User: What shape does this take?
Amino acid sequence: MTARMLDAIRSSLVSLRMRRALEELDAIVRQLERGQLGAIEAIHNLLTAEAARREDRRVAMALKTCRLAPIKTLEGFDFSFQPSLDRDRIMALAELDFIRRHETVHLLGPPGTGKSHLACALGIRAVKAGKRVYRTTLVELVESLAQAAREGRLVSKLRFYARISLLIVDEIGYLPVSEGGANLFFQLVSARYEKAAMILTSNRGFGEWGEVFGDPVVATALLDRLLHHAVVIPIEGSSYRLRQHSDLMPEHVRTNATIIPPAPKPQKGATMTDN
Ligand code: ADP
Ligand code: MG
Assistant: This one.
């Protein structure tokens, strides 16, 4: 009787595509038989195992489609390396209220200071919370809008981006925006204005946006919207990439060749001192 019922449970789990529950079934039944589990607990364990697998798969799929690879986490971010950065502000952003409030987060700083890392880590938090996230660079974004415009699909492309709850636009300022690109980006920003959140990363100050977008008038209109419900996070430290590089160097080289510009060479005849 029990065996027949177990077979029926197994085939139900197969037709419901509950693979993890199926895998766990025998172990849970054994625990039940030994009196280590109550019936309610057994049902609970079976269902939570399946729910956990589905959640893992959902997150894995979402992480692929929102292009957040390589995966970076807040846990993997060394705040002590970046003392100018307020850890509490980043951890507050990780609570994701800025998404609910449709704000724009600006991460500003020189190359290698962790802007993309933090943007990705916040994106992952959002994915785990069930938000629609998409990461792109400014150049890729403008190119995708330009292509859509050429093919007469601009409206549906803008609609696609408008449906994303958190749009991460990385690398504003490294490469100049192509002709007409400022205009396309402006249309996107207008479509999302006060409706959805963004994280923008840039190595350039806002004063340089006219140059970045090749059009001071559009740049001003962009900033008008992007600085209206905004959180601006400047990072003023040195490059983590170069630090890693210097870690690989032998000690005697490392002490002389670092991120910090070398001290001026002593003039001929000057006294040499130990350091
Ligand atoms: P940016 O986008 O500002 O140029 P990235 O976020 O790409 O810099 O950081 C460069 C590399 O250094 C990445 O691999 C990133 O994970 C790592 N990194 C940067 N800052 C930190 C940090 N404070 N702790 C740990 N890893 C960091
Ligand atoms: Mg970057």
